[in-house]
Batch of 3 targets.
Target 1
Amino acid sequence: MLVANERSDQGGRVAVNGVEDFGPWLARQLQRANMKQADLAKEAGVTRAAVSAWITGRAIPRDETMRAIADVFGAEYASMHTRTTDVANSGRPVSWYHRPAYADGGRDFGNAATFAFDADVEVLAREATQNSLDERLERNSPVRVRYTIHELTGEALARFREAIRWDALFPHYEAAAAQEQKVGRVIAEGLRDMYERDRLVLLRVDDYNASGLTGDDYGDGRFAAVVRRQLDSRKSDTSAGGSYGLGKATLWATSSLGMVLINSTLSVPHEGRTERRLVGRLDLPWRIVDDEPFAGPAWFGEPDTAPGSEGVARSWWADKETVERLHLTRESSAPGTSFLIVGAHDVASKATDSAHGAHEVDDEETVQAMHERLVDALGRNFWAAMTAGRNTAPLLEASVRTLRNGHVVIDEERVDPYRVQPSRTRALKAYLDGETVDRLTETGQVAHARVPLTIPARRGQRGTAEHEAVLLVTAVEEGDGKPNQVVMMRGNRMVIREARVPDLPLGTSAFQAVLLAGHAAGDDAPQAARAEAFLRASEPPEHDKWGQTDELRSVYSTAAHRRIREFTSGAYRSVRELVGRSQTKSKEGPRALRDLLRLDGAPSAVTRGGGAPTIRGLDAELDASGAWHVRAEVRLPAGQDSWLLSPVAKFDVRSGARPSVGWSEVVAGQNCELVDGGLRFKAGSRSASFSAVTDVSTHPVRAELAGLIVELQKIRGISE
């Protein structure tokens, strides 16, 4: 007999006492047990129509029928009412599913997406934290991110290996490590580290007040985008930092074993549940195990019984004990996700260790170096996101802690933006609190200016838009890094680029500058959404600069990157205006660089009645990548005509013709502007300046092996 439900929603589903609806819960238990509705009806002594009514939400069973259903599933009677967990599932334990090899013989020797970034905890911190910021749920509260380094040894390591079914995995690791490809060598090193040193480093990334991995196991949604797919960003918000769907690959790249386990608390229920949704993914190369070929990836989960997906591992709702054994226990029920990187390794830290001699570095120093690098990376990249105003919460809170076998090695360390970036943090807080000035007149003040960004129309559309970014300038404080830099960012306030401001007057007081574009300029900034979309399209996968990209060319135009150059040039000009007028620069410069530099010679000079523009002061420096950063002072002849010239860089090699090298960036300074790839010098001016950076990829030899010549040449095909 059927009983009317206590309450039905518009979809006909039953909700009792705020727990999961009985119908969807029962349907999932049938699927997990690989039972049909008719099977349950027969075992419980009811009609097939009664079971159908329960599942569709038209009715719920009587109490005695609930007991019969519990007996069918071998479950406790109370679980029929609480429905907080799935019934026991004997015969279908959690296991690893390895993707079979491709039928056409294709072989993948690793996940190409993991090679887009270095296996470096600094890169991981930037990419993973950016993803957490993009998924911030409650917009009036920060997303909280915590990194936990946990070293396992001895019995603790043995228990963890048992929890992840290591014995079943080991043959796959042996086959992968035996290969000579890059991924195989990394895995072999990871296995040696674990077995020879009896240690395994886990690195867990937890976020709270985030969306969690919502959606179906296979359909469109956050879960499938992270666990099942590559190059699927699933981010519709234009202010999101990520856009390529590559950032998640850093999680697997940081694992020497290619393994990441996941526990997600969902902001939107799936299957009526939100807490302890678990799954694991393993990225290995193509391999043969027991004469059976496998394609590469594997998943850790509950074997599926749905038609077409039989045996495929899908996510499951774990109990607290399982979560604890897998070191995935979350500290609260706040939505978000925990990623556990198994066998975490840090290439940069290992390079430092080897420089001191591997025998001199113990395990504690290794995890301590990883801890310090995480704290440094979080502070350097996200200090602005962690800055709060008087009446505004920060976007992010971040911390790092280090454990060994469950015991604290380094206490949880919350990243303090005032400690890592004191003057810039002070400048941003002053802006958030409305305490900026138009001109710096006293120590500690923060000057504020607007920098225009012209946003071109998308292809097929017409009309440009004007956005006003915010520029902040303030004096440096002790321990504030390199002075006279401008840091650029947008929406989620992650640092995109840091650059030295060119053409500064001699004697300029040391300063720091911050450029806030898009939504970072404020919710009421004009055309902020369009600015976010435009700048986002101009960023490479690393999101570390604004410039020409394939997306920018395809969505806007081939010349759209010129708007970026105009924007950054405008920012540099505004900085110079705020810190004081430019003065005549020294023509000498440091002797070590002076010996490598030459000014433009007469054969390449452009002549016209009244003389020709000449470079009268040249300052340059080599950066760590081997690129020349050039700052040039130009003397212009008397007259009222403007000049359109192109700066040309050449290497003065020891023998042969002087090869030209390209510029990666040209920035207009005083009395000139960028036009059609060249520099137009202002009519009537007697002096001007510009700066540029050579493109290392065009260098025929290393820069330190040749002198540098800079010339001004007339642009061919352009009439004056």
Target 2
Amino acid sequence: MITRELFCYTDSEADLSAIDGLSSTDVTAATREIQTLQYQNAARTVFLADRLAAAVLDELSFADRLGHPHIDQLADKAIVGEVSVRLGISRTQARSWLFLASALRVFPALLDAFMAGRFAIRRTQIIVEELSVLPDRTDDEQQIRDHAERLAIAMADGPVHDSVLRERLAEMVIALAPEFAAAGRRDHARDRQHVTVRKDANGHAQLNANVPAEVGVHLRQRISALIEERLCADDRRPAGVRQVDALREIQGMPGYRLACKCGREGCAGRIPEPMPEWMNDLHDDDLPDEPRAESEPAESESAGPEPVPSETAVGEQTALTVITDPTGRHAPRLQGFGAIDPAHAVDLIGSGAATAIGGPTFAYPSGSSDSLDEYLWALGEDLATWQRAALVADHGLAPPVDSTGHGGESLPPPGALRYRPSRRMIEKIVALDRICRYPGCGKPAADCEIDHVVKFRNADPENGGWTVEFNLAALCTPDHHRKHMGLWIPTMRADRTITWRSPHTGETVVTYPG
């Protein structure tokens, strides 16, 4: 191993000097070795904490003689608290480690991968949390659970953001056992829903809540809608400040309205400063005349009354949308959140909290049928992530579409030779990709740019990459720039997976639609 020869761990200057002398290739290899060792040690720390909890339980065995009606709850809290104190970690972290150690006992393949250092603690927790709702009481249920465990490990091995991994696992669980996914949602609501407000530094507070998906989506949409309605592009406050100011009005804080801070007099979102309270007692006759410049028109000559910000974003319900698949192959999706179980979708649509729309269709590129295996064609229009993962795990990657960027088309279809995709094409790519397609990114596709996988040539559009479905992908702005820097070279494949190759190391990674 590189790190054994590289580091002595007793002389920090020597180790830093060794790091400075590494080539870029060796830096990558050494960093991965260190990361694997770190993950291996973290896994053992989790199980050492579990062993410590067992020792504490033995120490508390005398409590059985006390006859306390809630002894189990008291013992559990005492164990978590003692592990927290002895290891110098928070009680929340101690509880999560003990849960993870216990849950992994029923996922042997995942336990082995965790102990081997393939996954960090947080990544392993995500897998366990999502798979734990799957039943294992019968042989058939155990087979489903084993299958899900294998696919989950394959998903987690890829360059996927933790938030995207959770979404893919949720979709898989819903596809395999929708009734148990619904039960898991109800159990989560019973055990973990909360709203807490804690003191923070510098006159601030931390607001933390665990709420149903539709509540979170609704609040986010209301905040975004109010900001878009009231604030112009010249309001340069940080995004977080604008969001908190919008939340103040949405939650009904007395005397507060979100106003644009651009400083321009003509801004429609600007709210005049309120009059001092003492002026409310004066009659109109008591107020002095407002001085007006000669060039300012009289009120009757003006273009109209000063715009008043609308109340719509605060006073009305923001519509939610559930994307459904009539064939039943896709899990329903709450727009702005992700996959939800069918019972949840029925509740949202039936209550009027959400409207239902059909999902996007998907067609393989023409001219590529000879290179597609039967298993890929059998997939049809089904883009469920868990099935794509099964195909890759069992059969390998789908074949590339083509290297020309023409999407498998022999003649340019309408719009192919125009740089900008049509609105309909943009909406389709966003719906199909769901997230940024660059390795390791999880930004929603709706917030991304639509990029040509093979570069479009403005001077010679016929011989460049075309503006067609299989040459377009969602990339967030920073990753769009990285792609053009040539750090990773993309190749679109027939199932919309993208293989990214490093021209410097030859390494390849694969990204999937969200």
Target 3
Amino acid sequence: MKHMNSEVKEERTSNKKRIDLFLVPIVLIAAFLNLFKIWTDEYANAYYTAAVKSMLQSFHNFFYASFDPGGYVTIDKPPVVFWIQTISAKIFGFHGWSVILPQALAGIGSVLLVYVLVKRTFGVWAGRFAALAMALTPIVPAVSRTNNIDSMLVFTLLVATWMLFRAVRTAKFGWVLAAFAMIGVAFNMKMLQAYMVLPAFYVFYVVATKITWKKKIAFLTTATALMLAVSVSWAVVVDSTSADKRPYMGSSQTNSVLELAFGYNGINRLTGNTSVTGSSHKQPAQAQQQTASSETKQTSNSNAESSQSSNQSKSSSSKKMQAPGGGNQNGMFNTGNPGPFRLFQKGLSDQISWLLPFVIFSIVGLFAGVKFKGPYTTKQKESLFWLAWLLPVAVFFSIAGFFHQYYLIMLAPPIAAFAGAGAVALWSMYKQRNGWKSWLLPGGILTTAALQVYIMSPYVSSIGVAPIAGVGALGVILALVLAVRKERKNSLTNYLGAAVLVVLLAMPAYWAMTPIIYGGNSMLPAAGPDSSSGMGGPPSTATNSKQSGFNGMQPPGSSSGNSSSNNQMQPPSGSSNGGQLQMPGGSSNNGQMQPPSGSSNSGQMQMPNSTLSKASSSKRKSGGMNAEVNKKLLNYLTKNNTGEKYLFATTDSTSAAPYIIETGKPVMAMGGFSGSDPILTVSKLKAMIKKGEVKYFYLSGMGKGGQSDVITWIKENSKEIPSSKWQSTSLSSQQGPSGNGTLYEITLK
């Protein structure tokens, strides 16, 4: 106990010292990477931004995280992060940057927390290097520059880690409860993803605390019970509320938060089973890319890859979007194929794995000589914590059936911690000529440089040969110099330390800047020279690949651009429809993605065109295919509204979101996010029409899985509005509901 008290006194003393001046530039770097130019993103992720617009309008919408102002359906995630975003928008006004700001600040806060957590045990230089590694891990700023959840989730888990470390140091049970309660809060951000750190929390507390096993079990049991209570608190309230008094729980099939948590946002992520059980017919799991997540649908709408080669059979085979385990090396959404080396494959390695070889050598050095039965030093105990965070998460991403690249931010804290702690430990072993351990530093540098050369090699056309050759040559030279000097008695110079820093972090730093240099993607954030496409990986061959957001591809029904089949979406290998992707509810035309009626593209799905170049300083609307409002349609609907609650109804959220953001008026996404939620029935729709709640319906021919009966009834009982009354002819306005679909009017007496 005296030892514990001395540690607390030491902590209070250290807190009174001056700010670490070396930390200041690191924080400034993090601030630049996370904040610079976020004001150019007007819509951010439009699906979530529309929810914030709706949540600003009433406490009912705020509490349930309603997607639309009418309280028809919620978004597909718990509300805590969106509560924070809504508060930010209330304070600073509703803007794209105001909903991004909390995540950007969380990204900076994570850098500071990593510094604090590592510095105390491993030393100030370890803390500095860990903080810098966290700041420069490419996926960290890429995610933090958006209104996606993951940056705030990681920050919350690091706060919980700080509480746990304090609980061990002070031997106070209250901090244990606080740490696990914070994980419960994180659950209400992104559900089961928050629980990925639990192995680290349990292992560390058991190993690090000097109390009896009886108390350990009692304390952990109580803390876990509290965590579970906090986790399901919102879910229990929502699921206990009558369905007619709250919005439908978006992306669930049974209108249940708990089903959403443990199914769609839980086990299904591991298995890849994203089939829509609520649709009239169950389709293959991998064919449900539109319904897999809020990010997935927008991938389909804005990030399908295209080929400029006239040889379709050769080009498309290398550009197909396939499920994990398929023939495509990049896997579904560039997440590679499952296996032990998945994190070193294209698409993932350039987001998170730049320092992984060095981390592996660091782990060897930090655990060298450790006996299973102990005793363990504080450094070894905390190293065990970071290892118990790193390994389970890495295993998950190595085998998971469905995730997106930006989820990899979950690996950033343990990688940064090991990079900082390992750098100091390996340097010390090297200087002390500590036998075989002294070879870990040059070995780690050489293998890390080799991996970085491998990561950059597919981007030679974008970044040139010089940086690739430079990193490789510098890594080899530095490793050789360290090997030659190893037996010398004279001390190492600071120049070698600076060279180590350059080799390890130069290219991650460049990659971290790519969302600023090339433009980011708020729907599917990823770092790299093609970061604006939202599909980090080898550069696209599209001629307009540097255009912001959509790689120069055209919207459905657009008269411009090439209508070649090279732009069609490809399904996972093994699909029963001949290798072509089916939209939920659609089966015609050999399974190709169907454009809206009236399209001239022969049944091929073409993607939206962004007219903003990377050099453009104007605001960009990166909200998806329908990221701009059709002003003529909006004027028509507004003028002819006779008191209806909803401005119009449409199949899914992609068409609805921009109009909610622009007007703040209710727009009904009949099938929820993807159009496949079993929310609406014909009888319920009839009742809504008779009550005067809705009379206009925009049908694009997409996203109608699970509501085909409703769509059929609308078409059979409505009056089609001539397109000349609402269709805009300019290309910019065609990126909302326009000539790509049909507008219907229904009035029932």
